[in-house]
Specification:
Helix content: 40-55%
Largest sheet: 6 strands, mixed
Organism: Aegilops tauschii subsp. strangulata
Low-confidence stretches: none
CATH superfamily: Dihydrodipicolinate Reductase, domain 2
Number of domains: 1
CATH topology: Dihydrodipicolinate Reductase, domain 2
Protein name: Saccharopine dehydrogenase-like C-terminal domain-containing protein
Structural class: alpha+beta
Shape: globular
Number of helices: 7
Distance between the termini: 15 Å
Number of strands: 10
CATH architecture: 2-Layer Sandwich
CATH class: Alpha Beta
Radius of gyration: 18 Å
Length: 226
């Protein structure tokens, strides 16, 4: 057995969505809209890794779903101000092309799905938005060029990380046809610790025999029966 995209987001966020969907259906509610919201302070302590990933995502159209139809949206657009609760509070989040959108739509059967991400301090969001709007797509899709760009700004990012910390928060919102709306929320003061725990939990599920033979996304029932 193997579980793919098995980290914190995507990963635990997929499982949170599956829990909300399954609970809604057990109470005769039909899920209509699922939204993933993510926040990480600075680079979350991940440094160049998360920077490079984020820049590469700015070169991709955002795939989302609206009433069953696949739609393409501009990266780092569609800003929303979302309340992540104690320790994080309200943060701006922006559309990004993340894999849990497609897998949740397919395997959980939710017709409308999207994902948004935001960071701190606020001017990092402005920078990401500017990169998405003004840098050539060809540059943002070139791993070598993105790597060189990351090398140049990494010292500044690490300096600011020391000020803003690496707090992480995930919020998953589900709306149903019967008016039942539910929210799943996870927050931790350190992204690095959360990622380690999340990955270890999926490994434990495989070792304990909770995963059937095959390759699964985290939200698939046969991928993680617990």
């Amino acid at each position: 057995p193997a579980i793919t995209t098995a980290g914190i987001y995507p990963g635990v966020s997929n499982v949170m969505a599956a829990e909300l969907v399954n609970a809604a259906r057990s109470e005769d509610g039909e899920p209509e809209r699922l939204r993933f919201f993510y926040y990480t302070a600075g680079s979350g302590g991940a440094g160049p890794t998360i920077l490079a990933t984020s820049f590469l995502l700015l070169g991709e159209d955002v795939i989302a779903y609206n009433k069953g139809e696949e739609i393409k949206l501009k990266p780092y657009s569609g800003v929303l101000n979302i309340d992540f609760g104690k320790g994080v509070r309200k943060r701006d989040v922006y559309l990004l092309n993340l894999p849990e959108v497609k897998s949740a739509h397919k395997f959980l059967g939710v017709p409308t799905v999207s994902a948004r991400f935001g960071t701190a301090p606020f001017f990092w969001n402005w920078g990401m938005e500017a990169f998405a709007n003004f840098l050539p797509v060809e540059l943002l899709r070139d791993k070598d060029k993105v790597g060189k760009l990351v090398e140049q700004i990494d010292p500044l990012v690490r300096a600011i990380d020391g000020i803003v910390g690496e707090r992480v928060s995930m919020r998953v919102d589900l709306e149903c046809s019967n008016g039942r709306n539910t929210i799943g929320l996870f927050s931790h003061r350190k992204l690095s610790v959360s990622v380690g725990h999340s990955t270890a939990a999926f490994v434990q599920a495989v070792l304990e025999g909770s995963t059937q033979p095959g390759v699964w996304f985290p939200e698939e029932a046969r991928g993680n029966s617990n």
